[in-house]
Predict the structure.
Amino acid sequence: MQNTGMISAAATASSANEPLKAVLDGLEAAVYVADARSGEILFNNRTFQALHGFDAVGQILRGATVPLPERGDYRVDPRGIDATDAPCELFDGELLQPRTGNWYHVREQAVLWVDGRVVRLGIATDITDRKKTAEIARQQEERIAHTARLVSLGEMASMLAHELNQPLSAIANYCNGCVKRMQAGADAGKLLPAMQNAAAQAERAGKIIASIRAFVKKSEPRRRATPVSAILEDALALMEIDARRRGIRLSVEVTPGLPDVYADQIMIEQVLLNLARNGFDAMKDALEDERVLAVRARPGCGHFVEIAVIDRGHGIAAGGLEQLLQPFFTTREEGMGMGLPVCRSIIEFHDGHLTAEPGPEGGTIFTFTLPVEEATRG
């Protein structure tokens, strides 16, 4: 009689759970429940079974097809959780299934099972298509950014030719002078200063060429811990070429002791150069003593460094600041309107933000943020 009552109660419970099971079986995500201590699978829905190949109830979760976090990835060790700790989140992140190459968003929580024990409730959603789409978009943005660098180089070509002509002419003059002195029987020791000057000018020309090559080189974005001073030094070296030609003075203000930022140096230099050229253009009609472009780097809010490029130009009409960051909007007759949108894409790729606002003394302040290297460590 007692056994008959237990079977009847179990049948009633099973019948009550049928609607919930039907809902879970209809999900595209794989759902599983496993004992928190032993890892034994207590429930798996139809999607989980399709991935695993069969109903895995009674099997050990670690051998399932769905990717699972490593022990060290959990916020707390599921094996040490008791009933008073549940419910609590164990893991929330993206994992790769190496055997299939598919990506899953996996989320696990510790909850209480119907019999009172602690279990791991997991949901694994296939996000492979989303990851592929994001990768295609990233590659497209990289191509656009590279094209923008080539456009910038084309616009800078005459300035760079002039800049290179100076050290090359100096080298030629020093070398010709040495040849004439040697032909005249001059003491070799007297030629040393001229040859040292020629070598210094050759080094200067080499640095200019190296900067240009690095700027236009097409490569995969490589974010790494980078000193802010290194980014500014290389960018300013290229800015000065254009600034001298236009009669603009550069002003640099960097807060001492800034932490390294987690960034691709060349991409951030591209942002700085684009913002600087916009500032130069905006100041073409400014008075001589107002032709100053300021570059400022200081700590930002939270785990960010804030870099600003400030001009004293004509400014932007009301309502135009937001338009500046939209594709194909430009205030330059010969402009394509892609420089600032590319800048914004680069900064957002770095998990930062690019903003524009009127300067208190006229002109425009472009500010972007970059995460510090420590903030990327999990």
In short: The mean pLDDT is 77. The two ends are 58 Å apart (CA to CA).
